[in-house]
């Protein structure tokens, strides 16, 4: 008896889109175009995407997350702009207030200097200039509107590396540039009035490794009354000041990372159960070179299990603290 076995050969191709839309393809994605020229985005699975454009009007596209945070992202790839302008970096929106934000690592055409220069921030091996700029009756996530843009633009362009969003959010907030309720956040390719192509892969996490439990300082359950609290950080510390987090599970965590900025050296105590309770660690931090220059500094924790109230107490010096991470 002769048996014939037939195999179906299936070729799998990346999905290509050319009309404005959002969705999920591994990571969440966004594609917006004003309809000018020819633009197509390839959804390549996971955190990868490609985009090709010819004589485009304006478009933004990328992969990332439907809700933005101060997350650290790592990306790699290539991007070429031929004529016109553009941007590459971490990009997103907030509402209440409506804000469009860029953490721009590279650009097409001339380096942009939009609006008012507010200062600088040093993060992830580079220095970024901070700008605030008003857009009047321009496209937004709620239709044409008037809104603010917050931008960190790297002084030396690069394509690929780590972006710690929280460092920029903290620096913006120190200049009164506060974000509202977070909307989407993507590793952006943008271009206008030109042609080109981009191939990008993005993932969450940085070269410092590992995940952990994040505690946003400004969302603490209680704090000393003289501290300055803003969306993105806590500052104005004096010796003895504290912030407290309720019901923190410390099991399996042997280290705490502080995302902070300071013009001097200092220290924080990590204490559990009450303000005068058991001390489980001390962060002796070094100056970061300024109040807007955020970096990550860590200390070890004594072995503790179970859920406890957690206190961060200023022992010396002063710093602006962003996100704390239990690792």
Descriptive key words:
Jelly Rolls; elongated; 1 helix; 60% strand; 6-stranded antiparallel sheet; 9-stranded mixed sheet; mainly beta; 327 residues; 2 domains; disordered N terminus
Low-confidence stretches: 1-13, 207-211
Strand order of the largest sheet: 2-3-6-14-8-9-12-11-10
Shape: elongated
Query: SSE string, helix = H, strand = E?
Result: EEEEEEEEEEEEEHEEEEEEEEEEEEE
CATH-derived topology of the largest domain: Jelly Rolls
| Termini gap | 64 Å
Mean pLDDT: 90
Quantity of strands, as a count: 26
CATH class designation of the largest domain: Mainly Beta
- Strand percentage lies at over 45%
User: Number of helical runs?
Assistant: 1
CATH homology-level superfamily of the largest domain: Glycoside hydrolase family 11/12, catalytic domain
Q: Round the Cα radius of gyration to an integer and report it.
A: 22 Å
Second rung of CATH, namely the architecture of the largest domain:
Sandwich
Approximately how much helix is present in the residues?
A: under 10%
What features would you describe in this structure?
- There is one protein chain.
- This protein has 327 residues and is mostly beta strands.
- The chain folds into two domains: 15-204, Sandwich (Jelly Rolls); 213-326, Jelly Rolls (Sandwich), CATH 2.60.120.
- 3% of the residues lie in helices and 60% in strands.
- It is built from one helix and 26 strands.
- It has one helix at 165-174, and strands at 15-17, 21-25, 27-33, 38-43, 48-54, 58-65, 72-82, 85-95, 99-108, 116-123, 126-138, 145-154, 161-164, 181-192, 195-204, 213-216, 222-223, 228-230, 233-235, 242-249, 255-262, 266-272, 278-285, 290-300, 307-316, 320-326.
- The protein has a nine-stranded mixed beta sheet, with helices on one face.
- Strand 4 (38-43) and strand 5 (48-54) form a beta hairpin.
- The protein is elongated and about 65 Å long.
């Amino acid at each position: 008896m002769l048996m014939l076995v037939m195999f179906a050969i299936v070729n799998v191709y990346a999905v290509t889109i050319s009309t404005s839309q959002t969705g999920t393809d591994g990571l969440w994605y966004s594609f917006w175009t004003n309809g000018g020229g020819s633009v197509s985005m390839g959804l390549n699975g996971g955190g990868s995407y490609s985009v090709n454009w010819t004589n485009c009007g304006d478009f933004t596209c990328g992969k990332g997350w439907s809700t933005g945070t101060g997350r650290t992202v790592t990306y790699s790839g290539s991007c070429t702009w031929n004529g016109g302008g553009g941007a590459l970096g971490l990009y997103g929106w907030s509402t209440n207030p409506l804000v469009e934000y860029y953490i721009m690592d590279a650009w097409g055409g001339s380096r942009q200097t939009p609006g008012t220069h507010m200062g600088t921030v040093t993060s992830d091996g580079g220095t970024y200039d901070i700008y605030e700029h008003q857009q009047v009756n321009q496209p937004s996530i709620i239709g044409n509107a008037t809104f603010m843009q917050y931008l960190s633009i790297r002084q030396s362009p690069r394509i690929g590396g780590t972006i710690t969003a929280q460092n920029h959010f903290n620096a913006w907030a120190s200049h009164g540039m506060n974000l509202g309720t977070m909307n989407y956040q993507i590793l952006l390719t943008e271009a206008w009035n030109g042609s080109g192509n981009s191939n990008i892969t993005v993932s969450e996490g940085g070269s410092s490794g590992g995940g952990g439990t994040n505690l946003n300082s400004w969302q603490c359950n209680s704090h000393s009354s003289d501290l300055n609290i803003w969306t993105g950080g806590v500052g104005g510390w004096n010796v003895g000041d504290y912030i407290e987090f309720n019901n923190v599970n410390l099991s399996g965590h042997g280290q705490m990372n502080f995302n902070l900025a300071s013009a001097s050296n200092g220290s924080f105590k990590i204490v559990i159960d009450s303000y005068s309770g058991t001390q489980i660690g001390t962060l002796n931090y070094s100056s970061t070179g300024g109040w807007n220059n955020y970096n990550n500094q860590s200390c070890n924790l004594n072995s503790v299990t179970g859920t406890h109230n957690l206190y961060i107490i200023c022992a010396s010096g002063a710093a602006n603290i962003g996100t704390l991470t239990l690792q």
